[in-house]
Amino acid sequence: MTSKDQCQKGESDHEENSRFTRAIQHHLQHLSIAKGNGNRVEESRVYSNLGMEYYSNGDFRKALEYHQLHLDISKEVGEKEGEGRAYGNLGIACISLGQFQKAIEYHELQHSIFKELEDRSRQMRACANLGVAYKCLGDFKKATEYNQIQLEIAKEVGNRSVEGKAYTNIGQTYHAIGEFMKAMEYHQLNLGITKELGDRVAEAEAYSNLGNVCTSLGYFRTAIEYHQHHLSVANETGDKAGEGRAYANLGIVYERMGDSKEAIKYHKRHLGIVEQMKDRPGEGIANCNLGISNRSLGDFQTAIEHHQQQLAIAKEIEDRPGEGKAYANLGICYHSLGNFPEVIDNHNRQLAISKDLSDRAGEGRAYSNLGVTLTSRGDFKTALEYLQLGLNIARQDGNRPSEGSAYANLGDAYRSLGDLSKAEQCYKSSVRILDSIRDHLQKNDEWKISLRNHY
User: Fold this and answer.
1) Is the pLDDT at 185 greater than 70, yes or no?
2) What CATH code would you report for 363-394+402-455?
């Protein structure tokens, strides 16, 4: 970076900090006037605005404090609409803090109030928020139920923009459980709406989602095309955050193709953008991806450094799910180095966080990681217990790719134990599940082959 670039970066950061400071000062002045006039309703609205400012600045704890004040006054003066909005904002802040169960409680209250007020548009928002919270918990069935309600209301009130967002939410949920063709269908529906509305930013996100599904399918050439479309629109609209995400996704595609050196180039571009924007969550993601690609190259020390940075950022911003993922990545790195005490310690930390958050998907991954580690250590009895727990969670969540991987890991454990009959049963179950996923790809042989090669 040149000295000129550094100066421009400093000016940009200063301008953003100044904007935030001015906004807070403005709201505090407004708050003082409202208090002086004894206007409790206006006071509550200022608290709401302060909460949103702090949320936008990444201070989710401070946002919670102000939204709670908004809620307290709304209840006091009997303003139901304000109470519902406060519950919604509290829930969104809780999602950002990884407090998914608490978020669900707030969004259910939000939904209940707006149902009572017969406000269909705000019911729709509450359903969208509930879908996000349940997806974060790994309860994909409930997430889909709420996203379908969101979609129905959007069609009812004629809100094409929200209809598109509902398609996105449903597509992402299907993607998470391995229903890739359904995911593609919903993301294509969203893409059509974004083009119809001329919403270039939403169109870029649709390309991003389609690219991510193609990456999961192993259809890498098409994935790169979609992410390049995303990058092009982001550059056209001056969307720096979108540009960074496009670089991150391109890096992931190249990593999946086995070209880790090319992946690192893209992840470094992503890191440069989020550092410039002071986007700490984005920095955590970039460090995570850089750690994975360096690990693939066998540079375990650099990988560990990136994952430790990922962990430090997650702790700093109180991102508990991100903290758990960092521990998982560190565990995998230490496994490659044969440092099993560190492996087990990190995976146990991930497991504890997942249980604390009621994150079933994260809990399942932790059990699987511990099972694989203990298989390597020769503790087959305990390994089988953990791997079975991981399998049970994958089956309960309807996560077919994870279920297929779990059976494969169980097969490895039984084979190491010398029980070839049970190993064969597990391997056959794994193949059967992956074949069922392939069947959903209809008659596109290139996609089927790519998927089988990947798994």
Assistant:
1) yes
2) 1.25.40.10
